[in-house]
Structure formats: C-alpha cells, structure tokens
Amino acid sequence: MGRGKQPKAESATEATSEKLSGKHYEKELTRLHGELVKLQEWVVATGAKVCVVFEGRDGAGKGGTIKALTERVSPRVFRVIALPAPTEREKSQMYLQRYIPHMPAAGEIVIFDRSWYNRAGVERVMGFCTEEEVKHFLAGVPLVEKAIVDSGVILIKYWLEVSEEEQTRRLKARISDPRKVWKLSPMDLRSYSRWYDYSRARDDMFAASDTSWAPWHVANSNDKKRARLNIITHFLDQIPYSAVERKKIVLPKRQKPAGYVEVRQEVRHVPAKF
C-alpha cells in the first residue's frame, strides 16, 4: 500500500451475498492446514522469523481466525501472544518494551492477538494514555517496525473490519451464550458506544503506520468463515516457503513383553457417562 495510501477500511465491511457452505469451508480449511504444516517445516528448516499482528474492532473475529490458523500446527513453532493489561512496573517502562521479548527467534512464527497498536486504539479511545503519548507512538512505530523488518523478521499486519450491525449481533450473542460470555468484558461494553472514536483512531493509525515495509492488510470479517480462508490464504502468499523434503516414515517394531504381566490394582477410572 505504501505510506500515505491508507487502506479503505470502511469498504471492507461490504460482504459478498454468496453464502459459503460449511462443507466447502471445511474442505478449503483442510487444504490450507496442509499448507500451514508445509510452512511450519520450512520455517524450522530455514530458521525464518515471522511475526503476525492481528488487530480489529471488538467482535471482528480475531480469536477465531487465530484459532483456525493454529489448530493444526505446533504451538512451539506458532506461538500466540495475548498479553494482559500492563502491570504498574510495565506502565513505567518504554512502551514497546513489553512486546520486544516476544518477537520471533529463528524457526518461529509469533502471532500477536492484539499488539503494540493498543496504544493507537483502545488506550487512546478509552483515555488510558495521553494524546501526546499517542502522537509519540505513531511517529515512532514505523521506525521500530523498519528495524524489526531489517533484522530479518517477516512482519505481517492484519486489521479485521466488521459492520456496526454485525458487531452488535455478535456482542448480543455473547450475553446469552455460556460458551462466549467470557469474551464480553466490561471494557467491551464501554467501547461499544464509541464506534466513531475507534474509526478515527483506526484512520490515524493507518495513515501513520501503513508503510511499504510493514503495510496493513484489511479483511472484511462479516462472514467469519470466508474471512478465515481469505486471511490464511493471504498469509501463506506473503512467505516464500516451499515443501521440505522429509524421509519416509515407517513405524518401528514394538518390543516384546519380555515377561511383563499387567499389574492388577485398583485405579480410579473416569466415569463413562457417554
């Protein structure tokens, strides 16, 4: 995109009317999972370093996308970082200091479920930092990301955009679903009413940090399944990986019992209720 040519985020809310069937979704996701395993093996073999940033509005589907991206690969290679609120000590540090230790080493892919861009978004909108701190962050973050990229890290940034109507539907669903209620925090409720404050903050963030070395990629996530497939496909396209030759796998013969006899002893079994 290049600096100064920020992505048109609002247009990203325009979803196709064509419904993606569950069968088609599972078929494509299975294929993409196979490619992610190939990528994993290539990253380990070559010592590549990959960092992926996921940002977006509340309810945009960041967590589900990250889960789809990582559910079939090793957590020792694909490391997901979701930092809690900073401690008092961390608040006194240089802002980016708490994120730097989590950057990838050789053979790792690090995924940030929200990142240093908290300063440009939630911290700014909710008043957790000053406008001067935001200005300082937006001026410096392109330089920091340039240093990250120059160190050999492949840095990929995603913004998930969702419409007002779809966000409302998803947040309401969290209220009544015991599987999702944990996702609805007091901060989400306070943030919900500030749609346009977040829009302005997002626009400023894009204008300052959409650079040629670390561009933003905006994904429409009104259709979660379609968004996951699009993002994973795009992610794979950003990395010049290739299949790593592996030796043919043959299971070895099991050892013989050599006199072993199963011990009869009382153990506590899990009740077979199903």
Task: Describe the model.
This protein is an alpha/beta fold and 274 residues long. The chain has a single domain, classed as P-loop containing nucleotide triphosphate hydrolases (Rossmann fold, 3-Layer(aba) Sandwich). The chain is 41% helix and 12% strand. The chain contains nine helices and five strands. Strands 2-3-1-4-5 form a five-stranded parallel sheet, sandwiched between helices. α3 links the parallel β2 and β3. α5 crosses α8 (195-209). The longest helix is centred in the first third of the chain and has 25 residues, at 22-46. It is globular. The model is unreliable at 9-13 (pLDDT under 50).
Kindly list the characteristics that best describe this protein.
274 residues; five-stranded parallel β-sheet; Rossmann fold; 41% helix; alpha/beta
**Main beta sheet, described?**
5 strands, parallel
The CATH superfamily is P-loop containing nucleotide triphosphate hydrolases
Ranges where pLDDT stays below 50 over 5 or more residues in a row are: 9-13
Order the strands across the largest sheet as they lie in space: 2-3-1-4-5
Identify the quaternary structure here: single chain
Structural class: alpha/beta
What is this structure, in a nutshell?
By secondary structure, this protein is an alpha/beta fold. The chain contains 9 helices and 5 strands; from the N terminus they run αβαβαβααβαααβα.
Secondary structure: elements and pairs:
Layout (H helix, E strand, L loop, with lengths): L21 H25 L2 E8 L5 H9 L7 E4 L6 H4 L16 E6 L8 H4 L5 H20 L2 E9 L2 H13 L9 H7 L2 H15 L6 E5 L3 H14 L37
Parallel strand pairs: 1-3, 1-4, 2-3, 4-5
Helix pairs in contact: 1-9, 2-9, 5-8
